[in-house]
From TrEMBL:
Residues 52-158 form the Methyltransferase domain. The keyword Methyltransferase applies. This is Methyltransferase domain-containing protein. Belongs to the methyltransferase superfamily. GO terms for molecular function: methyltransferase activity. GO terms for biological process: methylation. SUPFAM superfamilies: S-adenosyl-L-methionine-dependent methyltransferases. It comes from Aphis craccivora. InterPro entries: Lys/N-term_MeTrsfase_sf, Methyltranfer_dom, SAM-dependent_MTases_sf. Gene3D superfamilies: Vaccinia Virus protein VP39. Keywords: Methyltransferase, Multifunctional enzyme, Transferase. Pfam families: Methyltransf_31 (PF13847), Spermine_synth (PF01564). It comes from the Eukaryota.
Amino acid sequence: MNLVPEKNSDFSTTEYWDSFFTKRKTTFEWYGNYDNLKRLLTKYISAKDIILMSGCGNSDLSLNLYSDGFINMTSVDNSEVVIANMNNKHKTKYPGLVYEVEDILNTKYADERFSAVIDKGTLDALMPDGEVESLTRAMKMFNEIKRILKFGGRYICVSLLQYHIAQFIFSYFSENGWIIRVCQCTEVEDSPDFNGQPVFMVVCTKVNKIPGANPVLEWNPDGLTNERLDSINDLLEIVIDTQKSVSMCFDLTKCQMEDISNNYRFEINCSQTKKPRYTIMIVESPTEKNPNKMTFAAFIVPHGREHEWLFSSEEGQDILRRNCNVDRLAIISMHRGQIYKDLKQVQQELSRLMLKIAPQGVIKRGETILFLSLEQQLGERKIIMENKSEHSGNFVIEEVVGQNDETFRRLVFLNMPHIIQSETKLLIENGKIKIDYSHFLSDYIPYLGLGVGIVANQLDKVPKILLIGLGGGILTNLLLNAYENATILALEIDPFVYEIAKKAFGLIENSRLEVEICDGLEYLSNAVKNNDKYDVVIYDVDVKDPTLGLSGPPKAFLKQDILNNVKSLIGEDGLFLLNFVCRASDVKTEILNVLKNNFKQLTSLKIPEDINRVLLARNNDKTFDAELLEQTAAYMNNCTKSNPLIACDVIDISALKENIEDI
């Protein structure tokens, strides 16, 4: 039996519905049954209301409401077939149930007859598209509802809120001064026959229009909290976002995501601030894809530790999933600037969402969602400074408690909130906070220092270093502490960053360090004109646009004229070192080819558990072989061990050889 019309416009014809209800005698519920809608619907009507059920069809909604005490109700439909069926079905047992043939676009009822009009799918049937014919029908229905509804009465519309429908209903009733509240019918999403399309209840309350007043627009996601919005566009955006998120959760439950990868990431915003509160990373087994067999758990990352390799890299996340012994793991990260009371609060906030994204077999088996964390601790993050820089935008300096209760101080630019720009470990000695100069966020810093050591290890050399990108000064501090004869000119375009390096990260300032606030590109050009020479030029510069797939150095520093300047400054015997961070394989290949065409020797040192690479380049025939690098590492470790501020090895010589990459 085919009940699907040939075209969408048939949904608006009486002939289609007569045929539909002739063929289908059993009850048909559009957009959920009474149990799915009762909590919200009965909040906006009372037993005293005189109710019009528009487009009733053969739904049991009128019967259910009548049985719950809503007896002043008239149910109408333009299909004579269905009205005859419903009268025959209920006239004996429920004689008070009134079913009448009426066209909701033009009824016989008196003005202001009803205190509530309920529409469950009628508007959607009348507006299959946004064409003029559909808009005209909807306008007629709204005008009729406005006429027959009492002052203070409510038009309650249950709808999928396709964009053209949402835009029209919001615009019409806001222009007439009515109060509009959109509720999400979450019980529909919990029903076993849910199809992935969220259902909304739009409650439009008839009030007098106040000239010049802004429309009252509200979003009610849970039936409890109302959020006042400024514009129709804001309300439309929330509806669209909700539709996308519910659809995504449905696809996750059914394991039918179109993305061929095994990782999915999304954010949950704070309802008050609209800023991200949680980031959820879904990590799945590459083998088990049966939603009825998959196992599931949620892992809460301790506050401030989301940057760690285990939680931020694909490899680390999959290891974490396997360690948790589940097929799907939701890795939950908390955001700075948000307040979290304890783990229990976080679990309560996210428990419903976790049920929504768990494979359907977890729910069918009646399993409780398992929340995991490290030592069941929420973690601690304290922001000690917030400001805005002209060059770098908004930034924070925060202190985070990590493993073994160690405290780390970090600089984070908020345009790239998941990337730590600089980090140092804090020590407490005699009640005072001190900088741990032996701590490095990544091995790329000691590896850059290793490159400098190649020059510093030459007995006749007093290394003259040009560092482009001071940052928090971590690399500068290492070079000053490791190589007593080195002199450094550090360039930093952002004066804020220079002040941060001094005040928050213990920048060592002495006669061997000069810091210049300037544009590195301009300095390179001027230095060549001045016939300056350096033993080492280092690029440790980040890219401010996180969407390019290249985090450093910026492409402007790799243009041919700039590379010519670098080659002129270092001559034949000098070294060029780069902190190279690139996620896009095509961009990576392009940049490496450019460097290979400019330098006779080019070697890459990979950083385990990190995307950073340290590139070593020069323009003579001396290779960066394993023997040279291991000898230099031994020299560097001797230097750092003899300095009381570090007093330890900074490079693992045993792992160095395997980190040398062919280019």
